[in-house]
Amino acid sequence: MRKFPYAWSVDQLKGENCMDLGIRDRVAIVCASSKGIGKAAAEALGQEGVKLALCARHAEALEATATEIRSRSGVDVLAIPTDLRDGAAIDALVRQTLSHFGRLDILVNNTGGPPPGPFEQHDDAVWQAAFESLLLSVVRLTRLALPEMRRRNWGRIVTVTSTAVKQPITNLVLSNSLRAAVTGLSKSLANEVSGEGITVNTVAPGRILTDRLKSLHEGDEAATRIDGARGVPAGRVGEPRDMGTTIAYLCSEQAGYITGSTIQVDGGLVSGLL
Ligand code: NAD
To answer: How far, in Å, CA of 181 to CA of 189, rounded?
Structure first.
């Protein structure tokens, strides 16, 4: 297997050659952020001085992550236990964020992945649950966040999808279908709001070393690294920080001209041109 240097850690990225992303004191909601990709996005934004509202279902794990990010970055971090399938919980998440911070500039949409399985395995209830989790949560959060962004003529909306939007993945029909819908939503909205200082983008991870990927190998990290690197031109699986730093950049002042885009973070895994 080809050797490829590991990505810089967020701390290393704060060295003297580092770009200031120009978003200090902005306020972000980062969804599904107790661990994995969401946590990495929150860490990268926290390092930029962004104040954070974190959410996930389990209060204890979420508070542990909030404490960790608070102590590493020194920013104000609010932990709001939320089930993103629940519209009332999403209302409360945005309400509590606004009442604590008084503003909302950045929304990072992310949630747990849908169950695997072929088409014939999923009944209406499974499709409905996947729709509410992957698509409707983004609709609801965006609807509540947009007026706050419009008020200040500035906003960043970034949604985590999957390389399934470029190349459908075997045995993941729910993800392949609903993430395409999320991408359509994001592109449509980008066109509607780009004249108002608001950008809307999606980030498509390939194989990122999180609990979700490890669960496919019964939690065995070494096996996940080896198997996950197969067919990846970069020769390795992605680290959560590869996603986190990309998301933070899309939220930056400098990324103001990037909108309606899907950015792959996949070490070259998708073999198509676009
Ligand atoms: P993860 O299992 O490491 O973390 C998932 C996070 O989502 C946790 O914080 C969990 O508490 C939270 N969560 C799950 N269901 C929730 C709900 N209903 N409400 C609120 N929070 C909820 O997973 P990850 O790898 O970080 O994946 C994040 C997203 O990226 C998923 O949608 C996943 O399918 C997608 N994705 C991941 C990869 C990868 O290689 N890791 C590849 C493609 C797509």
So the answer is: 12
Q: How far apart are CA 170 and CA 162, in angstroms?
A: 13
User: Which single residue is written with the structure tokens 């459908």?
Assistant: 168
Domain annotation covers residue 225: no
Both structure tokens of 53: 């509202």
The CATH number given to whatever domain includes residue 166 is 3.40.50.720
Q: Which two tokens stand for residue 190?
A: 């980008």
CA of 96 to the centre of ligand 1 (A): 23
**Three-state DSSP class for residue 236:** coil
Model confidence over 49-98: pLDDT tens digits?
999 999 999 999 999 999 999 999 999 999 999 999 999 999 999 999 99
Ligand 1-lining residues (CB < 6 angstroms): 32-38, 56-57, 82-85, 110-113, 133, 160, 162, 205, 207-208, 210-213
- Residue with the smallest CA separation from ligand 1 atom 24 is 36
Between CA 87 and CA 93 the distance in angstroms is 10
Expressed in angstroms and rounded, the spacing between residue 274 Cα and the centre of ligand 1 is 25
